[in-house]
Specification:
The protein is α+β, with helices and mostly antiparallel strands. The chain folds into five domains: about 240 residues, no CATH class; about 130 residues, no CATH class; about 130 residues, At1g16640 B3 domain (Beta Barrel); about 100 residues, Arc Repressor Mutant, subunit A (Orthogonal Bundle); about 55 residues, no CATH class. Helices cover about 30% and strands about 25% of the residues. It has 21 helices and 36 strands. The strands form ten sheets. It has an eight-stranded mixed sheet. The protein has a six-stranded mixed sheet with strand order 2-4-5-8-9-3, with no helix packed on it. Strand 10 and strand 11 form a beta hairpin. Helix 5 packs across helix 8, helix 10 packs across helix 12 and helix 18 crosses helix 20.
Length: about 725
């Protein structure tokens, strides 16, 4: 009760050996509160878990997916309501599940470090009892086989998604009695829980040694002091073990961490290195940016959603495996920051630090240039995202511009960063080859280059040095390549985890967004690049192609004024300027649509409010494009950060939007013709729908995200996932 130092050395070793065994047998990282449960209630290491403990399962609080309930700490024993037999579980992990976090882990600044009840930048709700959306990870096998559902029953619950999510988690709106209670750390929160909701459980006379006996009474103050002393002792023992690693209050074995680094599959060493490199480079501007002084950039990345976006990772993030993967990823990021940076400042000028340890599995802040940041311990959550935001004032309407003869030139919009558009996707890692794919970017065509996957960069640099000479072999099915294009001698520039091929002569019919498949045989100096034919011609906007492409890159970069000779808005007509800005600056959807705030169009084109004559010309161009169907109109809203949103969100001010919709039309050729038919193509709108997959096939992460977005548009709650055996076909237009 007096702390770790008061425990005799022999008992310290017994305690250490037992807790190390608990961490080794449990599949999830062991929180200090869970380790306390194992000691206090008697966790059986032979497979029975708490099945033989004195716990009364019918006294456990009930939780239900999607409902508002009293906040539960890690370590709480719960009953998850189901349609038949209840699901008994121990909460082994929890994190914030804010709705504003994107599918790639992108986090609005104000969310990082925000207290419970926050509603916007610098805005706290008026309720004295704040509510926070939280994801709970239950361990349904903690009570042994006698109190666990069968695999078939558990699978059925996950498939129904009424009581637990498809991933086996529970998302709730957690209610805290006071703002002070919401700010308490995990151990203080668990102490309060044991002294209130689980008091009968804590003071059960059937536990090996009741806390009341240890402290000499059942007075709250004595019980609280004793509990905090026991929890502190458990924490000290876990942290002192040479066989364990800690992330916050979670303990993992070093063997498990080492095994994850050696794993070549999803969420293995390659993915951990990719995650670390992405966070390190998240705020660093592209080296090709040529448009004046680079403004400071801050990017917030949530680990949990970012892991879900990795290829093949979804199936490995179900149940308690999600908690294990998130903690391993955070440990990997912490090791990279401590090993490769000076208090978070990397050689590329970016500063990386943990900003929020709770939301989204941990939010990391990347800032460039990092040397202007005040240095501090990078692994101590600072909450700079929330601290840097203030409640926005209502946006004033733009004042009418005075008549002027001055003529403004349109600004040259920078290309989107590589980290946010067209990422590389790893397809296969074998013992003898690495296969990945990525879309061709406009900068690649202009500069004659192509980035390499970080795994390939690392292995090539180790075997061939930093600037090796390589051979490139291009295969373009359905296209024509000259001998000089099919076989090319190129150079590679290889850094630490970042590298690219240079000196590439791209064929003339290659365009931004063209999907490339790359293959490299390990130990060799040849890289094969191939395109994938569609089997027919399609017209997307003004582009006709017969090969697979990335619709997001095509919308963003194949705009008027952009080709392989450069990217400039000079000399474009008002119609071309409107299309260029909507496509380059609009909100981008997963199928390549772009939506822009109509009121902000003039400023987006010219960088400032232009004279009335130029505004009128742009408005006339917009009306023409809307009438022709080249643009569409829509209604969105403006969020508390001042950013437009679509569809419009309840409670936000509605705003008019203009959108670019790249209609995809199949080109039907007359018999024997070599050019597209001149006859108009009849179009048919096909709404989004489910389609059954062949046995053994699974949907892509893009289609999973598209289905979630489809559900949100229909007003359904978050968390809807594709049923097993199905994929989602997005809404589209086809010719007939």
């Amino acid at each position: 009760m007096a702390g770790f130092d008061a425990v005799p050395p022999v008992e310290q070793q017994r305690l250490l050996r037992y807790l190390e065994a608990v961490v080794a047998v449990r599949r999830a990282p062991v929180h200090v509160a869970v380790a306390f449960n194992a000691l206090y209630f008697g966790y059986d290491l032979g497979g029975e878990g708490y099945g033989r403990s004195p716990l009364r399962v019918d006294d456990f609080p009930v939780v239900t997916l999607g409902e508002r309930v009293q906040a539960l700490p890690v370590g709480a024993m719960v009953r998850i309501a189901t349609g038949s037999d209840p699901l008994y579980a121990e909460i082994v992990y929890k994190e914030g599940a804010h709705r504003g976090i994107g599918t790639l882990g992108d986090v609005p600044a104000w969310v990082s470090g925000a207290p419970a009840g926050a509603e916007g930048p610098g805005q706290l709700g008026q309720e004295s009892s704040p509510v926070r959306r939280e994801l709970l990870v239950p361990d349904p096998h903690a009570f042994g086989p006698g109190l666990s559902l069968t695999p078939a029953q558990h699978h059925r619950l996950r498939a129904h998604q009424r009581w637990i999510s498809e991933d086996g988690h529970v998302v709730i709106d957690a209610c805290y009695p006071t703002r002070e209670a919401a700010r308490r750390d995990d151990l203080a929160a668990y102490t309060d829980y044991l002294l209130t909701t689980a008091r009968d459980q804590l003071l059960s006379p059937y536990v090996p040694v009741c806390l009341a006996d240890l402290v000499g009474g059942a007075h709250d103050e004595a019980l609280r002091t004793g509990l905090l002393g026991l929890l502190g002792t458990v924490r000290h023992v876990l942290a002192s073990s040479e066989r364990l690693r800690m992330w916050g209050l979670y303990a993992m074995t070093r063997d498990v961490l080492a095994s994850a680094w050696r794993d070549t599959g999803p969420l293995g060493g390659d993915d951990l290195r990719t995650l670390a490199a992405a966070v390190e480079r998240a705020a660093v501007p592209s080296p090709r940016r040529r448009y004046g002084v680079t403004a400071p950039v801050t990017v917030y990345t949530a680990v949990g959603p970012r892991l879900r976006a990795l290829p093949g990772a979804r199936e490995r993030l179900k149940g308690v495996e999600y908690a294990a993967a998130v903690c391993r990823a955070n440990v990997a990021l912490a090791d990279v920051v401590q090993r490769d940076s000076e208090q978070g400042l990397f050689d590329n000028g970016s500063r990386v630090a943990l900003d929020d340890a709770f939301e989204g599995g941990g939010v990391w802040r990347s800032h460039y240039p990092g040397d202007v940041d005040e240095p501090g311990y990078p692994l101590m959550p600072a909450g700079r995202g929330w601290a840097s935001t203030t409640a926005p004032a209502s946006s004033p309407e733009p004042e009418p511009a005075a008549e002027s003869e001055q003529h403004y030139e349109p600004v040259d919009l920078p290309l989107p960063d590589d980290a946010t558009l067209g990422p590389s996707e790893l397809l296969r890692i074998g013992g003898d080859e690495v296969v990945w794919r990525l879309p061709l970017r406009l900068a690649h065509l202009i500069d004659g280059c192509l980035p390499l996957h970080p795994l390939v960069v690392e292995e090539l640099r180790q075997t061939c040095g930093r600037r090796p000479a390589l051979r490139l072999e291009l295969v373009h099915s359905g296209g024509t390549l000259s001998d000089d294009e099919a076989l090319q001698n190129v150079a590679a520039e290889l850094g630490d985890g970042v590298g690219r091929l240079t000196g590439i002569a791209w064929p003339l019919d290659f365009f931004p967004g063209l999907q490339l498949r790359l293959r490299w045989c390990r130990g060799g100096r040849v890289i094969w690049i191939s395109t994938t034919p569609l089997g027919h011609l399609v017209r997307v906007g003004d582009r006709t192609t017969g090969h697979c492409y990335d619709p997001l890159v095509l919308t963003r970069e194949d705009v008027p004024g952009s080709d392989r000779s450069g990217d400039s808005a000079a000399g474009l007509s008002p119609r071309q300027l409107v299309l260029r800005v909507v496509r380059r600056c609009g909100l981008l959807t997963s199928d390549g649509h772009a939506l822009l705030d109509r009121a902000g169009l003039p400023v987006a084109v010219y960088g400032r409010r232009p004279p009335r004559a130029q505004v009128t010309a742009l408005e006339s161009a917009v009306e023409e494009l809307l009438a022709e169907g080249a643009l569409t109109s829509a209604v969105g809203s403006r969020d508390p950060d001042g950013q437009p949103q679509f569809p419009a969100r309840p409670g936000e001010r509605q705003i008019p939007l203009i959108g670019y919709r790249p209609t995809r039309v199949r080109v039907v050729r007359p018999w024997g013709a070599t050019e597209p038919a001149s006859e108009p193509v009849r179009l048919q709108y096909v709404p989004g729908h489910l389609r059954r997959l062949c046995p053994g096939c699974s949907p892509s992460e893009e289609q999973r995200a598209a289905f979630r977005e489809h559900c949100r548009r229909l007003g359904k709650a978050d968390g809807w996932e594709l049923p097993d055996g199905y994929t989602f076909v997005t809404a589209h237009t086809r010719g007939r």
